[in-house]
Design goal:
The complex is a heterodimer of chains A (192) and B (220). Chain A is an alpha+beta fold and 192 residues long. Chain A has one domain: Nuclear Transport Factor 2, Chain: A. The longest helix of chain A is centred in the first third of the chain and has 26 residues. Chain A is globular. Chain B folds into two domains: 84 residues; 91 residues, no CATH class. Chain B contains six helices and five strands; from the N terminus they run H-H-H-H-H-E-E-E-H-E-E. Classes of the chains: A alpha+beta (192), B alpha+beta (220).
């Protein structure tokens, strides 16, 4: 009998905690925040393609690296894989990754991201931060001076996304905004 | 008593006169009765029609306009029908017409306010058309150099490269949700990088020199 009471009390506690931890955003606002996080990943996709492109002037590529770096949380890492060494995935600091990308030893580089979608929806954590995982597929193509395709692969990557509501003063007004920051970008699969 | 020939003739004349007078009077009486009956029938028909018309007005099943309904009720009232049911129905019909008038006035006012709001919105939107065009033009530039030139020209309208840009991502209940604030310099380059302008200027602030000191956009 005593055990039953304890069990009921435990259920009530867990139930009340989970309802507290649930979304307190309206579906419309939640959708806007979801879209915002996806948009940041699309921005990263665009930046990676600009940084990787050999047609991008050096100064422009450096400016874009600054912007791209601002998308990430400090100390985040990006995984790099290669079909030449499939069991070895190297993780680099965000800035190092972009600088390596800019200096890749190809005459021409094409990077395209597709199927950008949530693998795990944004979930509210006890500290109010929303955390989710977005999956992307990256198609990489490297060409030599003769315009021949010398390397290509497709990588599936998971990016952790952190969204937190913050406030700032602008022109004497208190502005509430959603700060989206990307975490580690992990390689999940690499194929030709 | 024995009637003489002369007296007999007199008596006959009197008798005929009496018959004629009595007969004439009876005929006059029957004409009046017919007229009364006719008037009663007409009145009954009028009452019946009035009831039908009033029922249609009360139930809202008539296709008459409110003015026509009002005229009809006034016409029925002018008959001075002494029938408690009709009198009650007139009251109900008048109440119904008053309600309909109030409702139609409310709808007209609502429509007027809606039109005013729409006009205001269009005016507000067109106020920023030029700057929206400029921002879009940066995003659709064919080369980096062309985009950079447009950015340089656009920057001239802003008080500094650090002018804050606020981007509304959603609006609900008079409450705005924003993206992380950025600066105009970063935002213009962002448009060049993304090659997309999916925003609309919502508001802007200017200083005394007419330079923009704050730009608020809304995501479309």
């Amino acid at each position: 009998m005593r055990f039953s009471y304890l069990l009921i009390a435990a259920f009530v506690f867990v139930g009340s905690f989970s309802s507290y931890a649930q979304d307190d955003l309206s579906p419309e606002r939640k959708q806007a925040v979801d879209s915002l996080a996806l948009e940041k990943v699309r921005d990263l996709s665009k930046y990676i393609s600009i940084i990787g492109s050999k047609e991008t002037p050096w100064s422009e590529a450096n400016r874009v690296i600054d912007r791209a770096e601002e998308l990430f949380m400090p100390e985040s890492e990006i995984g790099v894989s290669s079909l030449n060494n499939p069991n070895n995935i190297n993780y680099y600091a965000v800035r190092t990754y972009f600088e390596r990308l800019m200096r890749l030893n190809y005459k021409k580089v094409e990077i395209e991201w597709y199927n950008i979608e949530y693998m795990s929806d944004l979930q509210r954590q006890p500290d109010g931060t929303y955390v989710g995982v977005i999956t992307i597929f990256q198609k990489f193509k490297g060409y030599d001076a003769e315009g021949r395709l010398v390397y290509q692969d497709t990588t599936k990557k998971d990016i952790t996304v952190f969204v937190k509501r913050k406030e700032t003063q602008i022109g004497g007004r208190l502005i509430g905004f959603w700060d989206v920051l990307l975490g580690d970008m992990r390689v999940k699969e690499t194929s030709k | 008593m024995k009637l003489s020939q002369g007296n007999y003739t007199k008596l006959l004349a009197i008798l005929i006169s009496v018959i004629l007078i009595t007969g004439g009077a009876t005929s006059c009486k029957s004409k009046k009765k017919l007229a009364r009956e006719k008037a009663a029938a007409e009145y009954a028909a009028k009452v019946e029609q009035a009831k039908k018309d009033l029922t249609a007005i009360i139930n809202g099943t008539t296709s008459w306009t409110i003015d026509q309904q009002s005229d009809k009720v006034n016409q029925i009232k002018s008959y001075n029908i002494d029938d408690s049911e009709v009198i009650e129905m007139i009251k109900k019909a008048e109440a119904k017409i008053a309600l309909d008038i109030a409702e139609s006035e409310r709808l007209a006012e609502e429509e007027r306010l809606k039109l005013l709001e729409e006009e205001k919105r269009k005016k507000e939107a067109s106020k920023y058309t030029e700057i929206d065009k400029q921002l879009k033009s940066i995003s659709t530039s064919s080369t980096i150099d062309a985009a950079n030139k447009k950015i340089m020209l656009s920057m001239d309208q802003f008080a500094s490269p650090d002018v804050p840009v606020l981007i509304i991502i959603s609006q609900s209940g008079g409450f705005n949700d924003y993206d992380r604030p950025t600066t105009i310099s970063k935002f213009l380059h962002y448009l060049k990088d993304k090659q997309q302008y999916k925003y609309q200027v919502e508001s802007l602030k200017k200083d005394k020199l007419g330079k923009i000191t704050e730009l608020e956009l809304i995501k479309k």
